Amino acid sequence: MRRALRVVGEEPSRDPDDGLDVAGVLAAVAGGDLHAFGWIYDDLAPLVFGVARRVVRDPSRAEEVTQEVFTEVWRQAARFDEARGSVRTWVLTIAHRRAVDAVRSSEASRAREEHVARREPVEVAGPEEAVVTASEHDGVRRCLEALTPLQSQSVRLAYYQGFTYAEVAEMLGRPLSTVKTRMRDGLIRLRDCLEARDGA
Amino acid sequence: MAPDVHGLLGAYLLDALVPRERADFEAHLAACAECREEVDSLRPATTSLAGGVAATPPAPLRDRVLRTAAQTPQLPPVVAARRPRRRWLMGAVAVAAALVIGVGVGLGMVLSDDHPPTMTAAQVISAPDAKMHKENTSDGELMVAMSPEMHMVAVDAAHLDRPAGMTYQVWWHTDAGMESAGVLGEEMSVAVPVEDGDLMVTMEPEGGSDQPSDKVLFEMPATSL
User: Which residues of A, range 131-170, sit inside 8 Å of B by Cβ?
Assistant: First the structure.
């Protein structure tokens, strides 16, 4: 199924900005094309499932989140706005939010809160634990290393573990305003670093 | 942009806000082009963090996802607030396309879950399963009714004292952002399909607006309606 859609002559790239018209595939999905939807799934499911598993931890809950995310992509396909970003960015935005909502609404969240309240040292999970495959991953890892320690910790605790900025501030023993600011300037530095690598 | 709101931009992108802050930030975002631009410019970097944790999902999940999709109605594209009817046309096209392609089982559900454009607020309000919400606003009483069976929400503002030249507009605030669901016409009521998000009713100039004003009369997640 996947192969058939690749006849455009290029392998689908991990880079959302080149070659293959993923937005065109999504437009077919918006028209009810399940075949095209299967292609989008094949392309993005490892990332969606990966984020869900990292954030919610429980593998069966991560599967549920993945299913919810793709059902949402199917429902909302006609509302994707290409002017605001790539398909991949759109899908992963939905995925992270769903995963975070799932972890905060779960039983586990109570334990997490106690954890925060006791200010126990937390494992700051990062991509270095994951199976390394794509060169893109290398780029993310290197660029995360380019952040200041506080930027990096703030970004990672929020993204990979789903903590709120207030929880992050508590865990790191820093003022709220500092953590908010580090999250924003951390993302700006990450963007600039990734763009510089792409341009290189 | 107010500095306190701007400061939340990174936390917003990282989904590190509590629901209330997220809603406030998104309401602000809807009105601030500069902020949307910064959010859009930082999103790819934010989502690139997913690249570090990619993992192969269990193989059976693919079938489950596709089967669920085949049984799930798709939303029509968003079109200008002034012409809510066109949404239905587009939705019908999408359903027709799905039919032609023959997604197989579940299509009966797709069709029966979809609704004709002619449904009135009165029909929704009088549905046997309709659940009413009466909201006392500074302009008078606003009624919102939801029928899970019809999958529709009715908004009735006939009892409101509205200022001249103004009307009310219904919005859905979903993962995809803020979208107009319809503008109340002369009969001062409207029926809109239920979506996965928060329903909002705002006061707007006659004809409706592209983005909601600050005058919010009603706000509730679909799950609580």
Answer: 131, 133-134, 136-137, 139-141, 144, 155, 158-160, 162-166, 168
CA pair distance B58, B77, nearest whole angstrom: 32
Q: CA dist A164 to A105, A106, B183, Å? A: 13, 15, 36
Domains, chain A, ordered by start:
1-106 (1.10.1740.10), 108-200 (1.10.10.10)
CA dihedral B4, B9, B12, B16 (to 10 degrees): -70
Q: What pLDDT tens digit does each residue of chain A (200 aa) get?
A: 333 333 333 344 444 444 468 999 999 999 999 999 999 999 999 999 999 999 999 999 999 999 999 999 999 999 999 888 999 999 999 999 999 999 988 755 556 666 665 555 445 444 444 333 455 667 888 899 999 999 999 999 999 999 999 999 999 999 999 999 999 999 999 999 999 987 75
A177 contacts in B (CB within 8 Å)? Answer: 7
Amino acid at B205: P
Among partner residues A32, A97, A177, which is closest to B7 by beta-carbon distance? A177
User: Rounded to two decimals, what is the model's pTM?
Assistant: 0.61
Instruction: Map out the domains of chain B with their CATH numbers.
Output: 3-53 (1.10.10), 56-114 (no CATH)
Expressed in percent and rounded to 5, the helix, strand and coil fractions of chain B are 40, 25, 35
Query: Angle at the Cα of B27 (from B25 to B32), degrees rounded to 5?
Result: 85
The answer to whether B175 faces chain A, any CB pair under 8 Å, is yes
